Amino acid sequence: MLRIARGDFERICAQALAEYPHECCGLLVEEKQGGVSTAHACTNVQQQRHEEDPKRYPRDARTAYLINAGEQLRIAEAAEKAGGRVSGCYHSHIDCAAYFSAEDERRTWIFNSQEAGDDPDDPDAMYIVFSVCGEEAGSQRNVQGYKCFAWDGNRYAETGIEIV
Ligand SMILES: [Zn+2]
Fold this sequence. Notes:
By secondary structure, the chain is of the alpha/beta class.
């Protein structure tokens, strides 16, 4: 179960809408274990990587996200200095549902700096996926849904979100 402050949840929704039709991303920080998470927006560098090296990065930012590594490090350092920790991350899906894709699972290994197929070294990390639909799907831009996923010992499974 992820607990997140309402103001932070709303800021993620606003970010996801503003960055459409690109996936948005950011980190979740817990000030203390099991506490309420706050959201820290990050730059999705996937588009830039794709444009520089499309062979290595075949996906653009419509279908993938990559958190700026420097931002991730700065946020993690600030969280640890304050006695907290990075508790997970969030990203949006463009014109499709909020599900945990095979690519999302692969990204958790990048996030944890691990080899694909390992158990996560942070089994408590949680991942929120937002579904954003908009102009390109012929609708008004809106957040259609969201789901949170966590490691259950074998795989990433849906868990609850409590907005406080
Ligand atoms: Zn995804």
